[in-house]
Amino acid sequence: MDFGSILDQWDKETARPQRKQAGKLHRSSAGNITEGRASVCENERADHPLSAWLRINGVYDKDADAGIRAAGRGERRRRLMAKKPDAVIDLHGLTQDEAWKELEDFFHTGIEMDFEKVLIIHGKGNHSDGEGVLRNLCRKFIEHCPFAGESGYGASSTGGKGATWVLLKRGV
Length: 172
Prior knowledge:
Blueprint: H1 3-13, E1 25-27, E2 33-35, H2 49-56, H3 62-82, E3 87-90, H4 96-112, E4 117-121, H5 133-144, E5 148-153, E6 163-168
Parallel strand pairs: 3-4
Antiparallel strand pairs: 1-2, 4-6, 5-6
Helix pairs in contact: 4-5
């Protein structure tokens, strides 16, 4: 059995389209129809068949740009995660009602000032019965605030579980 027979058998078993034969018409990657053997068989390209078809037929793939935009968002997120907060509020010593009002004012000011990241110091709740009252209030506020995006506890150098950082949403 020669190499051509082996290749034909393999093409049949893997359900790949037949190779283009010499002397047949084929479409080049530039979209030109020519006669003769293609230097690279279109079916042998490493990319996805749909991508090859789009490229051959000159169709613009708008979804390919979505990956670039998503990468841009990822870069923005990484930058914000490493960034120090634009503003800090300390809620120590406030009642729940006072803390809620201060948080509302703080977030509205942050949006007006075009802040990207803020830090809320609420304490760990060491002097509270059970969990920290202000920590729970802060979490509830963030869940209900339309300006609050991703959040998490600060680094140990900024208070650990006694402080919460928040990324502010844009265009809300």
